[in-house]
Amino acid sequence: MATAQLTTDRLAEKHRSTLDQALATIRTRAYWSPYPEHPKAYGTDGSLDAAAGLAAHQSTLNTRFDLDQPGTDGWTGGETSPYGPSLGIEYPHADLDVLLPAMRAGMGAWRDAGAETRALVCLEILARISARTHEFAHAVMHTSGQAFMMAFQAGGPHAQDRGLEAVAYAYEEQTRTPAGRAGWSKPQGKRDPLELSKEFTPVGRGIALVIGCNTFPTWNGYPGLFASLATGNPVVVKPHPRAVLPLALTVRVAREVLAEAGFDPNLVTLAVERPGEGIAKTLAVRPEIRIIDYTGSTAFGDWLEANARQAQVYTEKAGVNTVVVDSTDDYKGMLANLAFSLSLYSGQMCTTPQNLLIPRDGITTDQGPKSYDEVVADLAAAVGGLLGDDARANGLLGALVNPDVKARLEAAAGLGEVALASREVVNPEYPDAVVRTPVIVKLDGSKPDAQAAYFSECFGPVSFAVSVDSTADALELLRRTVREKGAMTVGAYTTSADTERAVEEVCLEESAQLSLNLTGGVYVNQTAAFSDFHGSGGNPAANAALCDGAFVSNRFRVVEVRRQA
Amino acid sequence: MATAQLTTDRLAEKHRSTLDQALATIRTRAYWSPYPEHPKAYGTDGSLDAAAGLAAHQSTLNTRFDLDQPGTDGWTGGETSPYGPSLGIEYPHADLDVLLPAMRAGMGAWRDAGAETRALVCLEILARISARTHEFAHAVMHTSGQAFMMAFQAGGPHAQDRGLEAVAYAYEEQTRTPAGRAGWSKPQGKRDPLELSKEFTPVGRGIALVIGCNTFPTWNGYPGLFASLATGNPVVVKPHPRAVLPLALTVRVAREVLAEAGFDPNLVTLAVERPGEGIAKTLAVRPEIRIIDYTGSTAFGDWLEANARQAQVYTEKAGVNTVVVDSTDDYKGMLANLAFSLSLYSGQMCTTPQNLLIPRDGITTDQGPKSYDEVVADLAAAVGGLLGDDARANGLLGALVNPDVKARLEAAAGLGEVALASREVVNPEYPDAVVRTPVIVKLDGSKPDAQAAYFSECFGPVSFAVSVDSTADALELLRRTVREKGAMTVGAYTTSADTERAVEEVCLEESAQLSLNLTGGVYVNQTAAFSDFHGSGGNPAANAALCDGAFVSNRFRVVEVRRQA
Fold first, then answer.
1. Which of B159, B202, B498, B504 is the most buried (most CB within 10 A)?
2. Strand, helix or coil at B523?
3. Contact A260, A4 (CB under 8 A)
């Protein structure tokens, strides 16, 4: 590394304090982030401001995105923005028989660099991504359909937070054993003690595969990417064909930093598929692939878990998220909070509530008792009010990510009595964008045909106001839903200590993350890195949580060399 | 817990300092153990001395071993000591449809007790087992066939160490997040900060299954048992039908302690099978079983990994252990060390070397160059000398654990030129014991028919002196063996820094634990808890290592409850 521009000393000077703060925060779970959320915070210290970010994005459109990877045997790509325009970018297509062996070449030096240097290199990658957050925001917006502000925050600093969090966990896990040789001396009574010298080296498992998703390419992609890289594994990124650009930019930055730090840039590569090629399946069962991170459909997640037996497989699949509405002392706050949760990114988050369980006899509130019909009507009015202004609606909803979501939304109106109809919103800047407000459908929880609707995931801006016999009935339905369908989030509103305790018990027993009585500016569908766990890894919605020890500890093994002292 | 005899305060007074020392030692990897290795250390502080331990063991023989478990629908058992006598003990047979639901009943209180109380209860169980080490030694001896001293140490303090180590890892892992509620406050510029109160609870996954082995029922059983129990899971122990007693005693102690501490004793139960019943397969795929720990054959381990998809599966299977002999500056020490490794417990350890790779042109030593034939003859002489005295041979070898081992030993002599023939040793105390010294067979590594022998596991007192073209050839064969067959241990002797580096590189790349130039009183087949890793979890011999973060971190999940502050 003598000739590297980025020495470990230089990297430590820049990033060691950030790493230390991350290590402290994953223990306290307090609020912290090193990456600014405000667009105006960028433009100094070499970071791109709004205009420069937009210009950088535009200069990438309609070009060939070269990465100088081994085994490039053609070019592919056909992303079209959910806002309308085609991106016109071509990405390298890889011959896996050339690419994968080339990725292993740098693994020994990456291992020998040690946990700290690997962490610091990862932090430099994140810092450079952070500096280009404005550019990434456009890339995320025009692949996911998120509105700009959300693409900026969730696709930028929040994704970078999740990446940094994974690096911190990975570093902590690898440094549990002493670096360098440790002495070991076992007393033998009057005889000389037995003495050995022992050395412990964290070693990566092999090539890691990140399978990206359409809706949150960076936020869902970074934890696995950085956890694997920080634990010594090369990483091949297979983006969703509709959301290549944000991860292609990420891979490019990673390769630049690795090279500058004296490592093989092929430790991070991109594998984009030709239309219909299905390389995720091909890659997933290659013997070189030892780790897989996946976010997406339950069907393919289950397939990976069953078939990629040579790999450690971390999946975030789909669940059915529930909110139990029992009672509240802040009726307006509850309605406003729920309305926002249902509207944000047109409900296209894996954490968006789907089933609102409301007793058919109504609930008690600070504004007097409210019947089931009143609660549903008031919630519909709250959503309607929140999205009444088209400019604000566009800013919250973004665009529907693909035609399947639109089709589900349209079909949902036929499932029951529509309490709030979806309406089309025009986006003046992008007239081809498909923008829709959420639909709320009333269902009778006791009717078997209604169950077919609410007891499966309906991804998109669709929620069901399910009438139940009682809160006890709601809790039983909640339990069954989490156990059989999984849940990324559970919400509940109650003023009763007993009910609170009962819903907690269900969530503890079924391993679901619970938000209680949210009435302010935090929403059930949002989690903060370093503090909140995303998913639990203990119910069918996901087999892993972001981020915990289990997410990183099996990405490497510790090899011990012991010598006669 | 107010009425419990063992309050958390009392448990903390007794065991907190031991836990703290264990937590410190898994970081320093220094030598430490709270459980005495010397038989004479017992007999004070309520522990059983040699005579009392033997008497306790004898009082158990030819009795019905009642555990007062729910769902007992009959009695079964038919253990015969490898030393000859039938144990004559009957154990409860369980109706799983009654037993398993009963085991879940106490899970909530066990979860609510918290990580520290769970750890302290586990330490009390271990302390009571420790006090009865003399009794356990007889139980292990007369099920595994280990000689008494080995059964005492490996089945007693060393097994207890591994259990305590797992408790320490489990405690550390669960206390990464704050106990109790933690505040979270996110600044919002001029507006009020967003504030939440957050609570993190480690929750067990469900019932854990421990599938015991014949050779090391306690040593291989305790890590999984205590890791699962300490992380909040009930544990059902399914012992090997030939080695029930050591784990039945363990379950009885655990149930006593749980009850005294105010918990449901059914958090730990025993499931013994009727002859040929095969309940491991039945249990392994029951939906209630969420964790499985297994030690045994590769075939059944692979079956568990493929079929018990509802559970986290931790397996220690079989491998082919190699020693590379390149050169030495202590020829006598090397021969003595290897002779002991091959002889201990008649080679019936998953860590015993099988293939000794020796260059056909010989090696350099402090006693001059030694040809391949000389090295093999000298090793044969060293083993012969070590085991020349029948009393010492009996003390080292123990008895063959079952007829399969004897059959393999007898067949091995036909695989090549016998450098050291196995001989029958008479055990005057147990004339029916099958005691055999190891066989060493010479094989030409370049011959395809020889490969069929040395390239598969031959469990028992059989080793192959494999001639290779060169040390480089040996390293290539080592790499292929670890990659394709797995290895629990690798040994190497060399005076060359380059060769040392090369063998290290193979072990780092293939994830195998390496012992270099052992010539004293530490043997390649032994590992010390708190310091050495047993297996790596990164090659086909085992998917987990004893003990590391990955061994415990996925046995529980952290459920977060966040509330509007």
1. B159
2. coil
3. yes
- The pLDDT score that the predictor gives to residue B403 is 94
B516 pairs with which residues across the strands?
A563, B492
Q: Amino acid identity, residue A134?
A: H
Instruction: List the single residue in B28, B201, B564 with the smallest CB-CB distance to A519.
Output: B564
DSSP reduced 3-state for B433: coil
- What is the per-residue pLDDT for A1? 44
How far from each other are the two terminal CA atoms of chain A, in whole angstroms? 31
Say yes or no: A1 contacts chain B, CB-CB below 8 A.
no
Give the residue from chain B lying closest to A330, CA to CA.
Answer: B564
Q: For residue B12, which phi and psi values (nearest 5 degrees)?
A: -65, -40
Amino acid B2: pLDDT: 44
Residues A22-318+554-564, CATH architecture: 3-Layer(aba) Sandwich (3.40)
pLDDT of res. B3? 58
What digits encode the pLDDT tens for the residues A133-165? 999 999 999 999 999 999 999 999 999 999 999
Nearest neighbour of B512 by CB, restricted to A306, A516, A559:
A559
Question: Chain B within 8 Å of A518 (Cβ-Cβ)?
Answer: yes
Q: Is CATH 3.30.70.920 the right assignment for the domain spanning B8-174+202-318+549-564?
A: no
Q: Which residues of B fall within a CB distance of 8 Å from A561?
A: 504, 507, 514-516
Distinct helix (H) and strand (E) counts, chain A: 19, 19
B485: DSSP letter: H
B554: chain A residues, CB-CB within 8 Å:
537, 550, 554
Q: Hey, is A315 helix, strand or coil? A: strand
pLDDT of A5: 83
Q: Please name which of A64, A92, A82 lies closest in space to residue A143, comparing C-alpha atoms.
A: A82
Which residues sit opposite A237 in a β-bridge? Answer: A210, A270
State the amino acid at position B80 in one-letter form. Answer: T
Tell whether B305 lies on the interface with A, counting CB pairs under 8 A.
yes
Which residues in chain B show pLDDT less than 70?
A: 1-3
**DSSP symbol at A237:** E
Give the list of residues 6+ apart from residue B374 with CB closer than 8 angstroms, or none: B362
**Phi and psi based region of residue A276 (left: phi greater than 0; alpha: psi -120 to 50; beta: remaining):** left
Note whether B516 contacts A: Cβ–Cβ < 8 A.
yes
Q: Is the confidence at residue A2, as pLDDT, over 70?
A: no
Same fold, B8-174+202-318+549-564 and B322-516: no
Q: Say what angle helices A390-397 and A331-343 make with each other, to 10 degrees.
A: 70
Q: Can you give the residue ranges of every domain in chain B?
A: 8-174+202-318+549-564, 322-516
Assess A411–B contact: CB distance below 8 Å, yes or no: no
H helices present in A94-231, as ranges: 96-104, 107-131, 133-144, 148-155, 157-174, 217-230
CATH pick for A322-516 out of 2.40.160.20, 3.40.309.10, 3.40.50.850, 3.40.718.10: 3.40.309.10
